Structure formats: C-alpha cells, structure tokens
C-alpha cells in the first residue's frame, strides 16, 4: 500500500511537467512548448515538430518533466518497479538528467540493480550510467563486476563486446583487477568484433594502470593482433598501440618491419575510413630500407588520395610527402607522384571551412617544402568574401608563398581587391602582402609600389599605416630606386598613430634625411611628445636624429643634444639609455667612426619572410595532419609544452596561495634581508623566484625591452648570482607564459624557442656569464674497464668493457681477448630487454678473426629504442655474445649517466614548479661521504656527465646546488646537492616522478664525484 | 583521441555533453566562449583552439557548435570529419539537426554517441550500421514496441560491422527496385568589375538513392570520363577499376549516399552561364548612391536559367534602398545590410534590371569597401561541365531495376565584384 500515493504523485508531476520545466536550468523553450502542448492539444510549433506531433509521446523531452523536490525519490521508486517498461523509462529519465549535467549519482544502487536484464537497451542504458558515475562511487561499482564477468561469457558476441568495452570505461582501480581475465579471453575471442573491442580496451586499461597492462603481457597480445586476419582488428590494434606509444615515446611498441608493413598495407585496403587513418599515421613512422620499398609503399598508398574522408587524404599525403624524400628525383615515378598530389589538396579546399583551415595550414608547410606541387594552382587560394576570417588569412599567406613572376599580375590585382574589404585584420594583412610581393618578385616591385601609393590615397587610416610599414622594407630591399615617393609619404605624417608605422616613417626620414629638406622639422615635431611615445618609436627617433646629425651636422646640433639628453637623462628605459650613451660617446670621441657605424651600409633583407626554419619544417612535414602541423610547432613542444604550461600555472597559483612572492611584485625586502635560517621548501622556492626576476630598477620594464633590461640588471646584481641569471630566455618566459595561446612555447626545449627570443647579443653575453660562473667543464667520467666475461666461463673468450657517452652517443667499449687455442670469428651481440631499452645500434664490428692470445678493441654504438623491461637492479644489462664456438651470456651494469641527455638542463621556473609538483614521497635523500671538492668543482664534474646545475644558493656557508638531468626515456630527475665548506659529507636529495631511478642516480653521483 | 563532446547553441549554452573517457568539466568550454566572443560572428570562431591542458576542436553547423575536447596529439581533420559525421547522423535520424530536436531525443542521441565512439576511437559511423544498432523512432515502431515490449536497440551484431563492405546491410528487400543518380554541379566563380572571370571551378557531386534487393553490383560509365581527373569516392567504389577502365564499380550502400565528388578546375571547361552588368556607386557629396544591375544569359547550353537571385552585402552606411525591378522582387534588410533581389526565370528576350538610389547615413563618410554580388541560379537537366553518364549496369542479382539519372547545375559561390 505504501507506494500507491507515490504513483499518484508521479502522474501529477507528469501533468505539471510543463510548468516545472522552467526550473530546469538547461531547459529550452522549444521543449517547453512540446511538453506544454502535450497536455492540451498537439499544436505544431515548427514545421519539423509537425511530423512529430503524434510522436510527442515518443520524444525524450518527457524525461525532463519532474517535480522540484521529490524527483530523486520518485525515480528511486520507479527504478525499483516490477514492470520492465517502467524501469526502462525510469533509467531513461536518469540518463536524460545526466546528459544535461545534473547530478543523479544518488540513484547509483538502484540503477545498478537494473543491470541484470535480458533487455539490451536497458542494459546499455545502465552501462551508460555506470560509466559516468562509477568513479564517484567506487565501492558501489564493485557491485556490477559479477554481471560484467558473466556477460563476458555470453553467447552473443555483441554482449561480450559490450561488457568488456564498458568495463574498460569504468575508471576504478578495483574494477581493473577483475577486468584482466575477461580481457585476456576477449583478446583471443573467436569473434573479430569482440577482438577489436578488446584491443581498444587494452588502451583504456593502459590509461588507468599502465603497469598492470605491462605485467599482464597485454601489450604483446596487442602486438600479435597486428597480424590478425580481420582488417578491423588490425586497425584497432594499431590505433590502441599508437595511443599507448604516445605515453612511452621510446618504448618501440610499434616495431615496424617489412612484414608488418605488408600486413598493414593489406589491411589498409579493407578497413573503415577511420582505420585507414590510424594505419596511414602508423605507416608514416616507418623508415623504408631503400627507394624501392619507398616506391612500392607510395604506390599502394596513392589510391587513398581519392577518399571522400579528408583526414584519410591528408594522412596519405603525409606518408607520400615523407617517403618521397627517399625517391631519386630523376625517377619517372617521382614526377608522377608530384602530379598526383595536387588535385587532392585542391579538393580539400572545397570542403567545409573548418576542414579548409586545417588543410590550409598543412598546405602552407607543403608549399614551403615542395613549391612545385601547387605552383599552378594559385587561383584556388583566391579569397571569397564570405570565407571565414581564419580561412582568409591562411589563403593570403599561401598566395604570397606561391607568388612568382609568372602569376604576380593576378596576385597583385587580387591583393588590391582585398585591400578594400571590410575586415580590418584582413585588409592589413593584404597590404602587407603587397609589400612582401614587391620584395619577393623584383620585377613586380614597381607595380607594388604604385599599388601601395594608390592605397595611401584612399586615406583609410590603417591602410596608410600598413603601407608605410611595408614601403620601409621595400626601400631597404631596393635602395635608391623608389625614394621619389617619400614626399607623398610625408604628407601623411600626422595621421600615423600606431607605433610601428610611426617608427617606420621616422626611419625613412632619418635614412633619407639628405633628400628631405625639412627633415629636421619633421623629426623635431616628433620629439615634442618624446616621453609619450612607445619604446620602439623612441629608439627609432634617437637613431634617426643621430643619422640626421651625421648628415647635416651644422643645423642639427641642438636637436641631437636634445634627443640625447631626453634618452639618457629623462628616461627610465635602460635600453634607450644605453643606446643614447653609446651614441653620445661615439659622437664625442670619434665622429668619423660614428659615421661609419651609424651610416653603415645595411645588409639586404631576405626575400622570403617568415619561412619556417628548415629542420623544423622537415619535422613538421613528418607530422602533416596533426595538431603540430596546425600550430607549426614541433610535437615535442606540445608534449613538453603542455607540461610547461601546467607548471607555469602551478607556480602562479603557489604565488597567490602560499604567500610566495610572485615575480612581478618583486619585493625588495626579501632580497635585502636574506633568510637567516635554512628556509623551508616553499620559501626557498619563493626566494629563487625573486632572485630570478626582480629587476633592480623600480619601474617595470616595458615588455619589448625585456632582454636588454635583464642583462643590465645582471651587472648590478653581479657576484654569486651569475649562474642564476645565465639564461636570458627566462625573463621573457614570464611574459609568454601569461598568455595561454603562447603557452606551448614556454617550457619547451631550447630548440623549440622561436628564434627571436634568443637575441644574438644577449646570447653572446650569456656565454660569457656561463664561463665566468662555471669555468671550463671537465670531461665525462669514464669508469675503468672491468672484466664482464671471464675466460674460463666462455671457452677462452674474455671480455672486459665499459660504457662511454660521447657527444650524445652511447658506446659500449670492449676488449675481447682470445685466451683459447683456436681462432675466434663470426662475432655477434645481442641484449636482453632492459629498463631503458638499450640495444645495439648496429652489428658488432669485428672484421678480422681473433687469433689465440690476441686481443682486440671493439666499440659498439647503442641506441635506446630497444624493447623495455624493468631490470633489477635498474641498470643491469644482460648480454649474449656469439662467436664461431658458442653463445655466451653475461650481465653488466652501466652507469646511469650514460642515459643523461645533453639537453637535460631544465629551465629554472620549470624546475621550481616540477620540484613542487612531484609529491614528497618521491623524494629520497642520500649521503655522499668523503668528498673533498668544493661546490663549483663538483658542479663542473657533474656537468661532464650531463648533470646540470641550474642554480646555486649559499645559505650560512652551505652551498646548495639545484641540478637536473633528463634520461633518454624522457624522465627528469631533479636534485638538490648540499655542500658545506669543510665538511666532506654531502647531502643529496633526489626527486623524480619515477622514484625507482633515485638509487641508481645516487650511485652515479658518488662515482662521478669520487673519481 | 576524442575525449569529450559538448553541444553548444547559438546563444552559448551547453545543452548536451558526452565523455568517452574521464569526465571533463564544462568549464573547459570557457576558452571557447572567450574565442567566440572575440570572433563576433559565430562563423569566424577558429576551429582549433589550444588551452593549457586540452585542445578544443569545433565545427559550426546548423547554428550549433559541436565542440570536441582532445588531450593528446590527434589529427584535427579526423576530429572535424567525425564531428560532421555526428551532425549528419543526427540529421539523418531526426530529419534536422537542431537543439530542440536533440533535446526531444536526448536519450537516443546519447545512445548514438556511445555507439559512434569507443574510448575516442570511431566505432560505427555508417548510418546503415547505426540504424541496425539503434533504430530510429517511428510511430509504427513505438506502437510495436509498446505492444511487444521490444526495444529500439538491436540485440544482434550488425552484419555490416565486420564484413569487407561495412556500408551495406545484408538481407535488403524491396518490391520496387530502383536506383537514381543525381549529377549536381556547382559553379564557384569570381568575376571582376569588368566582367572577366578571375577564377572559376566546378564542384560536382553524384548523389545516389539506391533501393535494390540483395547484393547488387553496379557499374557506371561516362561519355567523357577524361573530365574527371580530380575525384574522391565513397569507400564502396573500387579504385582499381576506376584507374584501369575509368568506370565506377561498386556495391552500393542501401538508401541515400554520395557516390562521388569531383572537381573541374581547368578554366576552359567552366562556362559561366550568365553575365552581370552592374554599377554601384556612392557620391562624394551628399548621402546617397546609385545602383543599376542587369543580368543576361551567356552560355546556358540552350537551357533556361531558373531561380535566379542576387544577394548584395551593402556597406554599413547604407540606410535604405529605393529601387525598381523590371522582374521579380527585391528586399533590403536594414539590420544585416543585405539586399536580396529574387528574379526567378531568366527571360533572354527581356533582361531583368534593378535600378534606383541608395541612401546613406547622413554624415557618414563615403563607404570604402565595394559590395560584392552573390549570384544564385539553377539550370535543370544539364551538367555544366558536360559530364554525361553513358551506362549503368547491374550484376549479381537477377531482377531488372528501374534506373534514372538527373542533371542539375547550380551556382555555388558565384561572386561578382564591383
């Protein structure tokens, strides 16, 4: 009897639904109307709902109708109903609430109770619910395990697959334990549908618990699936392996060889479009042995260029662009392939704008690498007025890249057309593009200049300004040719309000001062508001006036005095001051020299602007179709970059939350009074931050002047802080990190830094600082050779050896000693799987047989891309050596410093953030006894082994060195080494995300420091 | 791979979210909203956005944003293609892709999304396969379901899932066997002030509607296949046959599908069917301007040009238009500044003309930008490139199907600059 009122209550609520929907935050009026009309008569609200008016009962909008309060209560009752249909409806209501982001987790036990059912729809719905909420109710989720395990044995493959698939989506550790056995069975299931689902499940499980997947041997099973008879299973196995491989860059999971390649190519023809993408992307990682193999792969991939799915097309383009490199250029096939590439790329441009955008970003790369492919296709890049702005800008870029003498007339006509469009950004870029054409195609320069002059006549403010900026570049490229237009430019002097245009105009006036009668008046007029100008304009004005003075010394002495005093005495900007002083000193000591310096002939500017640097371009070509290709940044910048940004965020949040001074507040108090006691970790980090970034001047530096500014600051700080200030990219780092869009650049390895950040001048000084701070670094420590394989164990072959790392190459250096009576030959070597994937990079080169009592030296280069297995101890290496007599086994231990990369110097901010980020339980502390080096010597010694000192602090006579190293598999180890003068015992704290390596690293410190 | 999907309406409300891995908070969309704000027009939101922890890849379709969140390096085209596939599927199931319809069918949409991706990997995206897994709701089915207690979710493994022809289900039966093909060509062109063609190309597509029993094997040949040098096919087309014989050989999916897209870019093949004489100018003095447009036939291959329409995006300063049309009607939308002249059939004897004056906001400077004209038109029974199907043969089944081919030429992105 108890539930009867409830049912009544429910039906009332259904009727009231239309009113209550308003309480739903996500509710839409449309639904409201449908719900409302249901109660009265079905009045169609739109032509579409008209078809549905009879069906209003069928629509899911009814699941939203609920009462305010008792909703959960009611659903509970319905879920526990005896009637199947009612149960299902109730679960649907729950799902509907879930999809709009409502919390219905309270119903967990009731929903799970509905799981055991023959009704597949109900089962699927419950699964949907489970996947969403299991994480929040891990203990309850266990209730579902039995049903899953049972379903994995079901006769219907659909149910088996569904069970294993859903189980993988429940991201609860406890569940994963139960998942292993069913998964193992499903990976070997007779039904390919189950196998292909299970393959993906391995990737899911790996995401939750990588170790478990490795321990259970699922990775090997997955590799076996690459040879499966069903193409869909192959494609999914490849997809799963690729995803897993991404989190283990060096694990060599996708071991590609001609056999597997052949299998992939066969599967390529038969699997779905998505599978084709996975397979093509995987193929692109393969390096063919010779041009023949390249060609045969290319031949088998080209049909994909005609696929309707643009992602398939672009992945195929990637494979072709990459393998084409291996083909000899005189080969007929090479030409054919080039021709085949153009049409599919053009076709991509008739797709939806979003696809066009990605395609254009990639075409931009392709055009830089192989302009011949699209050189005749200029017209498809012409802009349509209703293209989205992001497409317009990209098209414009490519138009300039394709511009040549042959098509320049057309291009110019187009660009002129664009310059009268509505969108300001686009117009600006079009005007700039005209200038770039002039610089690129000499024959067109004249026409470009006249076009620009026409545009200046329109008097549209931003058009004029852009035109002046580009005309400046044209002057530089073609000196003494177009100066006749200066008069026209000068007419527009007053209308310039953007710094770049003002600076350009001032440059022109200064450069051609002798031809402009009233140059002094013009420049003087700028001088009036000198302090309100931006730095860019101030610097330019200073230089221009000095130029003017050198050209017309008599009339302009006063002017130059004025600007020098403004720049040096009245300015807070060190950049400006420095430049002012330099000019001043030059002019006062040796005016002839000044003339030579200031009026020196300028180097020509390059034809192509913003070309991607060739090595980066090559890398990006290998990543066509990926996010890297959209952002034109190397993928390493992405993986690292995202981490870097994370760190950046962590630092700033620490700044606000834990009372650590944030860099830009730069409190002077902290630097004035260094902490008297050994600071706690948080404070220490805070201090480092301050030391790092506090400029000695009181006002904040203008961003553009930052590098120079910070260098100026170094002088004043001087002393022991040298090493802290070593890296000039740091101050800029702060600025970059601030904007999320640029985030990836920050924290990326140096190679990924845009070149402009490494201003050459500061780079030079940087080197000096490094030398001053550190002195010469010592060579790598090479452990002496030890006997690995005694002669008595190996039928007379004695092997002793050691490991060396020289300029990034790891070598195993061995002495092979023949102590037997017979000649030894046919040597070969193999490694067992080991912790860091060490493997011979080539065969063992012993060319001559070793006669009795002869010994021979052999060096074997090693790579770190071999198969990985954790060893005990970690640096243990099991080796098998074969000769004409037998096979011998031995094991040896390599110093872990072999694996420290040369680029293991972490940026300071990243270091700080990472240090904080790694949980304290990962920290281990060791003592190094009887070491008599001072901290600088220790630091130098360690640097020889690629252990880099990032910062040094001295607190109460104790030197603290902060050091980083990076292992070949991408693991970073951070160290804090404490050295007390006069105390031979060092303390070292190591922090690493993989704490297992700490012991090895410590041992390495010990050996390096003591030898 | 694809981590999560958010559906966002025009106003910027998230009305559906689906996660294929762990749940990602909605707040991730804030980065997108920021970009949306900045872009002003929804069409201009950049499709790939980088945030500190995720990448947001979105498409804008039918006034809805489909926003996917990814965490690792994935091919963005893959994601965009997939998102379009989601929109296609919704359209296919419910007739239209709109917020109200998605809300009405939210559970079905959710089930579909679950079926389409597993752990971010595409699982079943072919509409034939999906329809066997989750049946579209029809009135009849819902009645049957209530009577028999059966459900909308198929409990058998769809046959197409693993076969080498995943696009076709087994056991198709029809009483009337028919195969229709529409050859549709769109002219994309830019014509400059003087009437010279700056750029012209044809985007062609062969849309098929095939309702044939069993496993028919079709092959289609063309009178002039040499036109087709840039093509992309439905996966069902056997590429080898095309390479060797220039014939389309395929086992068709059941129902409607796009058989082939092609692209004719060589300009001498692209004929421009109409010419436009136009003069739009604004006076230096006084807040007004003049407009005079005449359209005439150029190369129409002897057919009539229908559904002719001219759309002009006027400069912002144009307040109103006082015009007379010799044929058709015109309207000027004040808020969007769009002038539409709907002409209808083009009569070669009496060329349609629209002329009159434009009035500008007083005090506003003379507009700098010149408006472009967008032309819409249709020509029935002809493919403007001259492409013609010569034969359509069927093997593998005994019955005689009814076959038909239709041609249609339309204006795609046809712009006349002033």
TrEMBL record, chain A:
Its main location: membrane. The keyword Transport applies. Residues 900-1010 form the Beta-adaptin appendage C-terminal subdomain domain. One of its GO terms (cellular component) is endomembrane system. Gene3D superfamilies: 2.60.40.1150, Leucine-rich Repeat Variant, TATA-Binding Protein. Keywords: Acetylation, Membrane, Protein transport, Signal, Transport. InterPro entries: AP_beta, ARM-like, ARM-type_fold, Armadillo, B-adaptin_app_sub_C, Clathrin/coatomer_adapt-like_N, Clathrin_a/b/g-adaptin_app_Ig, Clathrin_app_Ig-like_sf. Residues 781-891 form the Clathrin adaptor alpha/beta/gamma-adaptin appendage Ig-like subdomain domain. Pfam families: Adaptin_N (PF01602), Alpha_adaptinC2 (PF02883), B2-adapt-app_C (PF09066). One of its GO terms (biological process) is vesicle-mediated transport. Residues 682-697 have a biased composition (Low complexity). It is a peripheral membrane protein. Residues 1-17 form the signal peptide. SUPFAM superfamilies: ARM repeat, Clathrin adaptor appendage domain, Subdomain of clathrin and coatomer appendage domain. It is found in: Endomembrane system. Residues 641-712 are annotated as: Disordered. Belongs to the adaptor complexes large subunit family. This is AP complex subunit beta. It comes from Champsocephalus esox (pike icefish).
Automatic annotation (TrEMBL), chain B:
It comes from the Eukaryota. It is a peripheral membrane protein. PROSITE patterns: CLAT_ADAPTOR_M_1, CLAT_ADAPTOR_M_2, MHD. One of its GO terms (cellular component) is clathrin adaptor complex. InterPro entries: Adaptor_comp_med_subunit, AP2_Mu_C_sf, AP_mu_sigma_su, Clathrin_mu, Clathrin_mu_CS, Longin-like_dom_sf, MHD. It is found in: Cytoplasmic vesicle membrane; Golgi apparatus. Gene3D superfamilies: 3.30.450.60, Mu homology domain, subdomain B. Its main location: membrane. Keywords: Cytoplasmic vesicle, Golgi apparatus, Membrane, Protein transport, Transport. The keyword Nucleus does not apply. Residues 176-417 form the MHD domain. GO terms for biological process: intracellular protein transport; vesicle-mediated transport. The keyword Amino-acid biosynthesis does not apply. Belongs to the adaptor complexes medium subunit family. This is MHD domain-containing protein.
């Amino acid at each position: 009897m108890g539930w009867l009122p409830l049912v009544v209550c429910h039906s009332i609520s259904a009727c009231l639904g239309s009113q209550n929907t308003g309480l739903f935050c996500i509710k839409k009026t449309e639904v409201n109307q449908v719900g409302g009309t249901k109660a009265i008569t079905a009045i169609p609200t739109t032509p579409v709902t008209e078809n549905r008016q009879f069906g209003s009962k069928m629509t899911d909008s009814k699941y939203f109708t609920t009462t305010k309060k008792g909703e959960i209560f009611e659903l509970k009752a319905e879920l526990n109903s005896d009637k199947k249909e009612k149960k299902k409806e109730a679960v649907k209501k729950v799902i509907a609430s879930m999809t709009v982001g409502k919390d219905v987790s309270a119903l967990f036990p009731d929903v799970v109770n509905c799981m055991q059912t023959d009704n597949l729809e109900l089962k699927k719905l419950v699964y949907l619910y489970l996947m969403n909420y299991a994480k929040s109710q891990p203990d309850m989720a266990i209730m579902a395990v039995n049903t899953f395990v049972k379903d994995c044995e079901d006769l219907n493959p659909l149910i088996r697959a569904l069970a294993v698939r859903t189980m993988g989506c429940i991201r609860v550790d406890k569940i994963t334990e139960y998942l292993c056995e069913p998964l193992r069975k499903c990976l070997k299931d007779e039904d390919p549908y189950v196998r292909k689902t299970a393959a993906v499940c391995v990737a899911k499980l790996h995401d939750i618990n990588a170790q478990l997947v490795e321990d259970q041997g699922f990775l090997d099973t997955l590799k076996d699936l690459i040879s499966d008879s069903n193409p869909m299973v192959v494609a999914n196995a490849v997809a799963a392996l690729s995803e897993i491989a991404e989190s283990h860059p060096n694990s060599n999971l996708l071991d590609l060889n001609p056999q597997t390649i052949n299998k992939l190519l066969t599967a390529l023809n038969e699997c779905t479009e998505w599978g084709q993408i996975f397979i093509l992307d995987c193929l692109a990682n393969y390096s063919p042995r010779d041009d023949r193999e390249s060609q045969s792969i290319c031949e088998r991939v080209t049909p994909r260029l005609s696929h309707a799915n643009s992602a398939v097309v672009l992945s195929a383009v990637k494979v072709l662009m990459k393998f084409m490199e291996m083909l000899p250029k005189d080969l007929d096939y090479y030409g054919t392939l080039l021709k085949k590439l153009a049409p599919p790329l053009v076709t991509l441009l008739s797709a939806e704008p979003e696809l066009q955008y990605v395609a254009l970003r990639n075409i931009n790369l392709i055009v830089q690498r192989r302009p011949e492919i699209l050189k005749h296709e200029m017209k498809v890049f012409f802009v349509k007025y209703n293209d989205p702005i992001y497409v317009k800008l990209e098209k414009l870029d490519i138009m300039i890249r394709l511009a040549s003498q042959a098509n320049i007339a057309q291009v110019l006509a187009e660009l002129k057309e664009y310059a009268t469009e509505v969108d300001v950004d686009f117009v600006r870029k079009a005007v700039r593009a005209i200038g770039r054409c002039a610089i690129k195609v000499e024959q067109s320069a004249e026409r470009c200049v006249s076009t620009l002059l026409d545009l200046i006549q329109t008097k549209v403010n931003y058009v004029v300004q852009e035109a002046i900026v580009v005309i400046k570049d044209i002057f530089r490229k073609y000196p003494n040719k177009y100066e006749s237009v200066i008069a026209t430019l000068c007419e527009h002097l007053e209308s310039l309000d953007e710094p770049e245009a003002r600076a350009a105009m001032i440059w022109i006036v200064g450069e051609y001062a002798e031809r402009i009668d009233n140059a002094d008046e013009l420049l003087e007029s700028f001088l009036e508001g000198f302090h309100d100008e931006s730095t860019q304009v101030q610097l330019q004005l200073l230089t221009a006036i000095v130029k003017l003075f050198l050209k017309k010394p008599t009339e302009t002495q006063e002017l130059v005095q004025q600007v020098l005093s403004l720049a040096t005495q009245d300015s807070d900007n060190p950049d400006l001051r420095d430049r002012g002083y330099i000019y001043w000193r030059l002019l006062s000591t040796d005016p002839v020299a000044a003339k030579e310096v200031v009026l020196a002939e300028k180097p020509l500017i390059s034809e192509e602007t913003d070309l991607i640097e060739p090595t980066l371009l090559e890398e990006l070509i290998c990543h066509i179709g990926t996010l890297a290709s959209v952002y034109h940044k190397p993928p390493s910048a992405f993986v690292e970059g995202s981490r870097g940004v994370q760190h950046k965020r962590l630092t700033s949040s620490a700044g606000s939350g834990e009372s650590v001074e944030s860099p830009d507040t730069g409190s002077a108090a902290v630097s004035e009074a260094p902490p008297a006691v050994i600071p706690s970790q948080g404070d220490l980090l805070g201090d480092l931050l301050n030391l790092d970034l506090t400029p000695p001047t009181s006002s904040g530096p203008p961003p553009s002047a930052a590098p120079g500014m910070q260098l100026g600051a170094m002088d004043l700080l001087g002393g022991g802080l040298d090493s802290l200030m070593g890296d000039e990219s740091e101050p800029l780092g702060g600025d970059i990190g601030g904007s999320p869009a640029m985030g990836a650049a920050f924290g990326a390895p140096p190679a990924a830094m845009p070149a402009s950040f490494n201003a050459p001048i500061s780079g030079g000084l940087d080197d000096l600082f490094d030398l001053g701070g550190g002195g010469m670094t010592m060579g790598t420590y090479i452990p002496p050779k030890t006997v690995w394989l005694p002669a008595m164990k190996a039928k007379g072959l004695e092997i002793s050896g050691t490991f060396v790392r020289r300029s990034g190459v790891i070598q195993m250096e061995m002495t092979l000693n023949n102590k037997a009576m017979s000649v030894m030959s046919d040597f070969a070597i193999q490694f067992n799987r080991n912790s860091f994937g060490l493997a011979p990079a080539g065969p063992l080169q012993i060319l001559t047989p070793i006669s009795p009592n002869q010994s021979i030296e052999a060096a074997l280069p090693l790579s770190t891309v071999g198969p990985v297995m954790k060893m005990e101890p970690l640096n243990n290496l099991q080796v098998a050596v074969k000769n004409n007599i037998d096979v011998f086994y031995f094991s040896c231990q390599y110093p872990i410093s072999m694996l420290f990369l040369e680029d293991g110097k972490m940026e300071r901010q990243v270091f700080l953030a990472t240090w904080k980020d790694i949980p304290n339980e990962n920290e281990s502390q060791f003592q190094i006894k009887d070491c008599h080096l001072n901290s600088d010597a220790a630091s130098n010694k360690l640097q020889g082994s690629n252990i880099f000192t990032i910062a040094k602090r001295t607190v109460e006579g104790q030197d603290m060195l902060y050091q980083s190293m990076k292992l070949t598999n991408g693991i970073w180890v951070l160290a804090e080494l404490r050295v007390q003068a006069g105390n031979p015992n060092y303390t070292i704290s190591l922090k690493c995300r993989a704490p297992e390596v700490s012991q090895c690293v410590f041992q390495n410190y010990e050996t390096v420091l003591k030898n | 791979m694809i981590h999560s999907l958010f559906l966002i309406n025009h106003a910027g409300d998230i009305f559906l979210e689906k996660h294929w891995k762990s749940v990602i908070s909605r707040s991730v969309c804030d980065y997108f909203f920021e970009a949306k704000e900045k872009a002003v027009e929804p069409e201009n939101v950049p499709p790939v956005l980088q945030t500190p922890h995720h990448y947001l890849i979105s498409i804008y379709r039918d006034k809805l944003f489909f926003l996917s969140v990814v965490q690792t390096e994935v091919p963005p085209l893959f994601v965009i293609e997939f998102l379009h596939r989601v929109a296609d599927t919704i359209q296919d199931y419910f007739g239209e892709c709109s917020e109200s319809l998605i809300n009405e069918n939210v559970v079905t949409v959710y089930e579909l999304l679950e079926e389409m991706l597993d752990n971010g990997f595409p699982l079943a995206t072919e509409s034939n396969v999906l329809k066997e897994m989750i049946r579209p709701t029809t009135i009849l089915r819902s009645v049957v379901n209530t009577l028999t207690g059966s459900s909308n979710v198929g409990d058998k493994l769809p046959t197409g899932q693993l076969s080498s022809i995943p696009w076709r289900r087994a056991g198709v039966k029809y009483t009337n066997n028919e195969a229709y093909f529409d050859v549709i060509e769109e002219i994309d062109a830019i014509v400059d002030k003087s009437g010279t063609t700056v750029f012209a190309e044809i985007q062609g597509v062969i849309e098929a509607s095939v309702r044939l029993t069993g496993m028919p094997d079709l092959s289609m040949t063309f009178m002039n296949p040499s036109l087709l040098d840039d093509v992309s096919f439905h996966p069902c087309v056997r590429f080898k046959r095309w390479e060797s014989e220039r014939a389309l050989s395929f086992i068709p999916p059941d129902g409607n599908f796009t058989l082939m897209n092609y692209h004719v870019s060589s300009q001498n093949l692209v004929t421009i069917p109409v010419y436009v004489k136009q003069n739009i100018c604004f006076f230096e003095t006084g807040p007004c301007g003049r407009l005079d447009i005449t359209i005439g036939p150029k190369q129409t291959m002897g057919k009539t040009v229908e559904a002719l329409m001219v759309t002009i995006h006027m400069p912002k300063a144009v307040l109103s238009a006082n015009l007379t049309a010799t044929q058709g009607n015109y309207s000027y939308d004040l808020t969007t500044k769009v002038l539409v002249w709907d002409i209808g059939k083009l009569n070669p004897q009496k060329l349609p003309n629209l002329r009159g004056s434009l009035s500008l906001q007083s005090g506003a400077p003379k507009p700098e930008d010149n408006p472009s004209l967008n032309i819409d038109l249709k020509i029935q029974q002809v493919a403007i490139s001259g492409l013609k199907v010569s034969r359509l043969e069927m093997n593998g089944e005994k019955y005689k199907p009814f076959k038909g081919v239709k041609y249609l030429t339309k204006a795609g992105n046809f712009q006349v600059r002033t």
